[in-house]
């Protein structure tokens, strides 16, 4: 073999080794930033997959009733709720099944908003909780980080963007390159680092696709990207065209302010009733109209609180294609806007379907079990990463993977990372911060400590 050929082979080996080191280094940084969030999101997400089952078990005395022949009217149920908890009724939740109770949301002066549970057959009040005060609403707020304030939602974008980076770099590190062991099997025993390395790699291979899917479909709730895309999706054919089907007077009030709604419709504006005086049709007739129009069972009715307000019936069942919102003029009872999944643009449909799958709803129990396995895999991935790092790290050091001998290999890697930074602004900002810290650590701090 000639010296020229040997030199080229050695150069190729060094180049591959340098690139591997660069990818490994940024995989480590991504894990350092994301793994704590991934554990939290995986645990809370796994619990929220079974929100209906858990809430039904915890609050069975409030949410479950015996089926009877006679039924109370919606207005009678509202009157019963107000008799026990004086205030203003703002929402009526239709029983989703014959065994479900009705839920009346009442704004009180002493306790804020309360969810009052009423037997739909006898009209008896079963009890009350703070509005969105169930265990699963708390889990949902923890999962979305909304529990810590709106500013914390920005961390969702960071976690989502960096987790995609984590999967991409992880696939590169996993790539066999002629190796047979540790590709789809785990070698060694738990006391050995190789066992944890293989367990981490193989687990990452199987859950990586789920991580990317969950990150992308979770992005709509992020603080910057999600909010801007929502603004873009509403009022355009991409998401929800304003004034669907009819041209009606539009108020400045948003649908999400009066009733829980789908993500793509959070900023959809409400119509106004055509008159400001007269006799309102009342809740009973509004519910009759929603039933006649075929609104899916379990819908919520937002009760108008001012003369120009409307009755809004909205439902977001497990099957995303059955989503629907109807606004009724509170005086004539005529539908002002009747919009469903078919009226969304292509982007709105894709996002709503993705969110429904993300929440474990779209495909029933199979959806829940598959995502539960993915969430458990994510926890295992994070734990194995921590154990592997602990076994590898030098004493008294963070154990950052070594720099490549040729820093030029960073150029292509950083170019790829920059694309993700442009798509997700907060990720881009954090990427620049990490580059600055890495440069400071290798060019400034380390020489001073040498």
Automatic annotation (TrEMBL):
The chain crosses the membrane at residues 26-50, 154-175, 195-216, 369-390, 410-437. The keyword Membrane applies. Keywords: Membrane, Transmembrane, Transmembrane helix. InterPro entries: PepSY-ass_TM (IPR005625). It holds the Pfam family PepSY_TM. This is Iron-regulated membrane protein. It comes from Aminobacter niigataensis.
């Amino acid at each position: 073999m000639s010296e020229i050929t040997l030199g080229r082979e050695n150069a190729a080996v060094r180049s591959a080794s340098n690139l591997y080191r660069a990818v490994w280094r940024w995989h480590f940084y991504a894990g350092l930033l994301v793994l704590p969030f991934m554990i939290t999101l995986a645990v809370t997400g796994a619990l929220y997959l079974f929100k209906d089952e858990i809430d039904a078990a915890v609050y069975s005395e409030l949410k479950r009733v015996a089926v009877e022949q006679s039924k109370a009217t919606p207005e009678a149920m509202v009157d019963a709720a107000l008799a026990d908890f004086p205030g203003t009724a703002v929402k009526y939740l239709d029983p989703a099944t014959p065994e479900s109770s009705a839920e009346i949301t009442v704004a009180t002066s002493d306790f804020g908003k309360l969810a009052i549970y009423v037997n739909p057959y006898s009209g008896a009040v079963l009890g009350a909780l703070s509005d969105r005060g169930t265990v699963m609403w708390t889990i949902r707020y923890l999962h979305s980080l909304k529990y810590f304030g709106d500013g914390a939602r920005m961390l969702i974008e960071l976690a989502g963007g960096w987790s995609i980076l984590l999967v991409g770099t992880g696939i590169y590190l996993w790539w066999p390159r002629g190796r047979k062991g540790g590709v789809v099997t785990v070698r060694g025993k738990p006391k050995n680092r190789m066992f944890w390395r293989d367990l981490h790699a193989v687990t990452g291979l199987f859950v990586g696709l789920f991580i990317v899917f969950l990150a992308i479909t979770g992005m709509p709730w992020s603080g910057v990207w999600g909010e801007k895309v929502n603004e873009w999706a509403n009022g355009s054919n991409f998401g929800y065209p304003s004034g669907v089907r009819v041209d009606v007077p539009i108020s400045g009030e948003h649908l999400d302010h009066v009733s829980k709604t789908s993500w793509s419709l959070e900023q959809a504006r409400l119509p106004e009733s055509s008159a400001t005086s007269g006799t309102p049709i009342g809740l009973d007739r509004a519910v009759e109209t929603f039933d006649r129009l075929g609104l899916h069972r379990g819908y919520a009715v937002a009760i108008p609180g001012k003369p120009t307000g409307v009755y809004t019936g909205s439902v977001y069942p497990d099957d995303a294609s059955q989503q629907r919102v109807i606004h009724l003029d509170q005086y004539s009872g005529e539908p002002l806007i009747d919009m469903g999944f078919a009226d969304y643009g292509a982007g709105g449909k894709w996002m709503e379907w993705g969110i429904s799958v993300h929440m474990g709803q779209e495909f029933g129990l199979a959806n829940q079990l598959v995502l539960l396995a993915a969430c458990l895999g994510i926890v295992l991935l994070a734990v194995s990463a921590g154990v592997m790092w602990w076994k590898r790290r030098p004493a008294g050091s963070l154990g950052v993977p070594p720099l490549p001998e040729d820093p030029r290999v960073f150029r292509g890697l950083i170019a790829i990372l920059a694309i993700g930074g442009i798509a997700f602004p907060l990720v881009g900002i954090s990427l620049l911060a990490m580059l600055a810290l890495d440069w400071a650590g290798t060019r400034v701090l380390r020489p001073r400590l040498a």
